[in-house]
Write a structure and sequence with these properties.
This is Uridine kinase. The chain has helices at 31-44, 68-75, 89-100, 141-144, 157-170, 176-195, 213-227; strands at residues 8-9, 14-15, 19-25, 54-58, 105-111, 116-124, 129-133, 149-154, 204-207, 230-231, 234-235. It is an alpha/beta fold. A hairpin with a 2-residue loop joins β10 and β11 (234-235). It is globular, with a radius of gyration of 19 Å. It binds adenosine-5'-diphosphate and the ligand Nc1ccn([C@@H]2O[C@H](COP(=O)(O)O)[C@@H](O)[C@H]2O)c(=O)n1. The site of ligand L45E5XJ5 has 12 residues, from loops.
């Protein structure tokens, strides 16, 4: 097993483990769906949670806890969850730094119905690939600079709004009226001010999100190629390679 704290020397260049991928994009653009597809195509579908070598972490796990007054505003769809100040940047950066250093880290679970972190969460054990997704993951410079690859999921705003309406009604216990009020007054302006300008930092822009199978295939191939084990300074190639580079 390769040491986790330093980049792995694999003959051609030093490939860091874990390989950390940032996935940004507007609300309901398909960030989570793209991450799931990448994870599945890296051969992780059906692998038991603790055995997985790829982990998906959502920036939403690092929303700050609300004061009672903020909570009351959130219930009216009037709290700005799309502003950078809504996130606990220190906790987010520390978690990612610890993961990069190969430590086992506890990531909170976020409860969108009650607008708070839940006590339970997931333990992230040392892995090969981390997919860190969220609307503002490229906004914070220190965080942005920790990504070895940056993806921006670029989906039409009307499509995003219609998906968000359905999702927030079905999964987040919201009413149509409050969703639309929050979207027009807070989500859309914040997207334009804070999220969209970070598209320029992306290495790859993925139009149409998870529907873009060509882009996802190319990204997966690139990750597999980067993390493939080497022999005599050259990366080995196996027809049966479903995932990146076991054994290390
Ligand atoms: N290509 C797609 N076609 C139809 N529905 C989609 C597609 N991609 C995502 N969705 C749906 O849209 C909603 C938001 O997708 P998600 O991947 O969670 O986006 P994000 O992580 O950017 O918020 C979810 O309900 C998801 O099932
Ligand atoms: N309590 C909360 C927390 C967040 N939101 C909204 O979620 C969006 C980010 O999640 P995506 O999966 O859509 O990227 C963001 O736009 C927040 O407005 C919320 O409504 N309530």
């Amino acid at each position: 097993m390769n040491g986790r704290n330093s980049p792995r020397v694999n003959g051609l260049e030093r490939i860091p483990r874990p390989f950390i991928i940032g996935v940004a994009g507007g609300t309901a653009s398909g960030k989570s769906s793209v991450c799931s597809k990448i994870m599945d195509q890296l051969g992780q579908a059906g692998v038991e949670h603790r055995q997985r070598q790829v982990v998906i972490i959502s920036q939403d796990a690092f929303y700050k806890n609300l004061t009672p007054e903020q909570d009351a505003r959130a219930k009216r769809g009037e709290f700005n969850f799309d502003h950078p100040d809504a996130f606990d940047f220190e906790a987010m950066t520390k978690a990612l730094k610890d993961i990069a250093a190969g430590k086992t880290v506890q990531i909170p679970e976020y409860d969108y119905v009650n607008n708070c972190r839940r006590d339970d969460g997931m333990q992230v054990h040392p892995v090969d690939v981390v997919l860190f997704e969220g609307i503002l993951v490229f906004y914070f410079k220190e965080l942005r600079e920790m990504f070895h690859m940056k993806l921006f999921v670029d989906t039409d705003p009307d499509t995003r709004l219609s998906r968000r309406v359905l999702r927030d009604i079905q999964e987040r216990g919201r009413s149509l009226e409050k969703i639309l009020h929050q979207y027009t007054s807070l989500v859309k302006p914040a997207f334009e001010e804070f999220c969209l300008p970070t598209k320029k930092y992306a290495d790859v822009i993925i139009p149409r999100g998870a529907d873009n199978t060509v882009a996802i295939d190319l990204i997966v191939q690139h990750i597999q190629e980067l993390l493939r084990p080497t022999k005599g300074g050259k990366r080995t190639r196996h027809n049966s390679d479903s995932f990146v580079g076991r054994p290390h």
